[in-house]
């Protein structure tokens, strides 16, 4: 369900029609701003690694890593080259359309440096990325952020808003001639569709990789990138940790968050975080956020926050500086065990919470929200938080082998 952004830019007209493709001209270079814009050599950047594994045990120690930093100096970013235009591939088409809308970020804090990627949302200079990129995995709330656009210009950025619960953030630069990305929708995707990732893996700006969509609705758990002060999630949720090489111990754990993500096999690596996952036409379908790996590198398991959720959070960050998330007001456990579950079993209904005035009670099993199947507590948590506070949802509940539905108005977590 595509939406428009605040200060909605005029829609681009370089989209392919009826199978034909006319490559867009390179975006006009923005005028250098003596105070905001400068060219610079990328610093050596330090890798952040998640060292705990949610999927461990069942799959032999598989780890989910954040993608927010890199260790390689990158050359100035450029628009994808087109040496011929008569027989371009779908990947070329997607990269040419979306490439000018993807930027490279360099982030500096007191303890470390990092790099990542971002996506231009509008001609006002708003850029969407990950919270873990901007906060260096939760280490700092006052990082300095530099943005390099596809024409090679570099700008100082201000942080508009952080949302650790979705691991999304919006920053803003003062620049002209920006190319906002076109929005797609998960509702239009199929497993097996082409997916193209664009970003700065290992600091190599403007890198394009392609693959297919493996799964449209995977639930993963990653370390919260909130700077300390955010309450921890329950201890049994086995939080991930971010560790930087210059630290003997990881930062204080801030718990973990659950995310429903698009899984693809497009090669993504550290530094791709916050970058674009696009479809064959260059429309944004996800924000790359994590990889699953045994070796801290790509093994064909990449995860992206779906564009519909990312767009909702970004709009709220731009308008309010923060985003809201739904809350049910129940404590839950797997309806099964840690490896095989068939829903989220209610342990307790919190007094005065959104579910308190419904028929739901302890030992009931929540198996669906609207048209989405709920398999375990993680998928329930991730799905509820995709809705804004105050949203009305329909829960499908099982009791003694029978199903019934309850309509609930969600509370808010912030």
UniProtKB/TrEMBL annotation:
One of its GO terms (molecular function) is peptidase activity. GO terms for biological process: proteolysis. The keyword ATP-binding does not apply. The chain crosses the membrane at residues 40-64. Residues 317-401 form the PDZ domain. SMART domains: PDZ. The keyword Transmembrane applies. Keywords: Hydrolase, Membrane, Protease, Transmembrane, Transmembrane helix. InterPro entries: Chloro_Bact_Ser_Proteases, PDZ, PDZ_sf, Peptidase_S1_PA, Peptidase_S1_PA_chymotrypsin, Peptidase_S1C. Residues 1-36 are annotated as: Disordered. Its EC number is 3.4.21.-. Belongs to the peptidase S1C family. This is Serine protease PepD. It comes from Enteractinococcus fodinae.
């Amino acid at each position: 369900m595509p939406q428009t952004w605040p200060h909605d830019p005029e829609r681009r007209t370089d989209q392919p029609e009826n199978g034909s493709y006319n490559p867009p001209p390179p975006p006009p270079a923005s005028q250098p701003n003596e105070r905001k814009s400068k060219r610079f050599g990328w610093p050596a950047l330090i890798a952040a690694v998640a060292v705990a594994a949610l999927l461990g045990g069942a799959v032999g120690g598989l780890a989910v890593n954040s993608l927010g930093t890199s260790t390689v100096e990158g050359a100035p970013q450029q628009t994808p080259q087109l040496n011929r235009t008569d027989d371009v591939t779908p990947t070329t088409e997607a990269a040419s359309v979306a490439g000018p809308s993807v930027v490279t970020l360099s982030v500096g804090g007191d303890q470390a440096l990092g790099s990542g990627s971002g996506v231009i949302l509008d001609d006002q200079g708003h850029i969407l990325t990950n919270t873990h990129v901007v906060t260096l995995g939760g280490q700092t709330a006052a990082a300095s952020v530099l943005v390099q656009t596809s024409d090679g210009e570099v700008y100082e950025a201000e942080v508009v808003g952080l949302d650790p619960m979705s691991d999304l953030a919006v920053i803003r630069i003062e620049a002209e001639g920006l190319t906002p990305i076109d929005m797609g929708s998960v509702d239009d995707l199929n497993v097996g569709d082409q997916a193209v990732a664009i970003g700065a893996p290992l600091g190599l700006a403007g890198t394009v990789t392609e693959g297919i969509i493996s799964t449209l609705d995977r639930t993963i758990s990653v370390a919260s990138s909130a700077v300390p002060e955010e309450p921890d999630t329950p201890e049994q949720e086995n939080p991930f940790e971010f560790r930087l090489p210059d630290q003997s111990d990881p930062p204080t754990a801030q718990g973990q968050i659950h995310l429903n993500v698009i899984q693809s096999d497009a090669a993504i690596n550290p530094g791709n975080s916050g970058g674009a996952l696009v479809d064959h036409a260059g429309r944004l379908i996800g924000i790359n956020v994590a990889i699953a790996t045994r070796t801290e590198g790509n093994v064909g398991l990449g995860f992206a926050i779906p564009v519909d959720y990312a767009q909702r959070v970004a709009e709220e960050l731009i308008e309010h500086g923060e985003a809201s998330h739904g809350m049910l007001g129940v404590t839950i456990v797997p309806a099964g065990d840690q490896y095989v579950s068939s829903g989220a079993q209610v342990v307790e209904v919190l007094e005065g919470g959104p579910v308190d005035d419904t028929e739901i009670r302890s030992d009931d099993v929540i198996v669906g929200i609207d048209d989405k199947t709920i398999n375990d507590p993680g998928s329930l948590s991730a799905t509820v938080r995709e809705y804004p506070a105050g949203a009305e949802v329909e829960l499908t509940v099982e009791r003694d082998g029978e199903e019934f539905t309850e309509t609930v108005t969600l509370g808010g977590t912030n």
